[in-house]
């Protein structure tokens, strides 16, 4: 991963390039997931932190062109979110003892709240899908099944599965855009769909 390539990706994402965003995700997700899982000792918590990291990247994309070291910035962002989770757990453990609370960074909290709100909106959008389309979408995003596996499980063609997924994602994206005024990359919608 070269610094120049990362800067170029950040510059493209700053201009709203979803392909560059997808490349950044594939470049950093596995590496960050390993570090965050080690820190939080929970794969599920780590995946949720990374959802928030990539959501934050997209939400502040207009500032990305000014970042000198994208890799370092991504690691710092992931660390900050992880520390917020650890502080939250510590506060929950210490609440009965009335120990003074270490308040996490407001930005981390607000992004976490926004991620949960988006998940709720996605949940509502998914509920509005026709039953067969909803089933295909859930099998794909939450159960992690491939198009081929879904086709076999539901006894339909892979082509039908593909069409159902494309239509479902388009509907959810438009629903979110209408509700929030923000256009989210499909990749983010898929990530946020894993835990609602």
Explain this structure.
The chain has 196 residues and is an all-alpha fold. The chain has nine helices and no strands. Helix 6 crosses helix 8. The longest helix is centred in the middle third of the chain and has 25 residues, at 70-94. The two termini are 33 Å apart.
List the helices and strands and how they pair.
Layout (H helix, E strand, L loop, with lengths): L2 H12 L3 H23 L2 H17 L10 H25 L11 H23 L2 H11 L5 H8 L3 H23 L5 H8 L3
Helix pairs in contact: 1-2, 2-3, 2-4, 3-4, 5-8, 6-8, 7-8
Characteristic key phrases:
mainly alpha
Structural class: mainly alpha
Q: How widely separated are the two ends? A: 33 Å
Largest sheet composition: none
Treating each run of at least 4 consecutive H or I residues as one helix, how many helices?
A: 9
Order of helices and strands: HHHHHHHHH
Taking pLDDT < 50 over at least 5 consecutive residues as the criterion, the unreliable ranges are 99-107
Q: What's the total number of strands?
A: 0
In round numbers, the mean pLDDT is 86
Principal-axes shape call: globular
Helix content: over 70%
Strand content: under 5%
Rg on CA atoms, Å: 18 Å
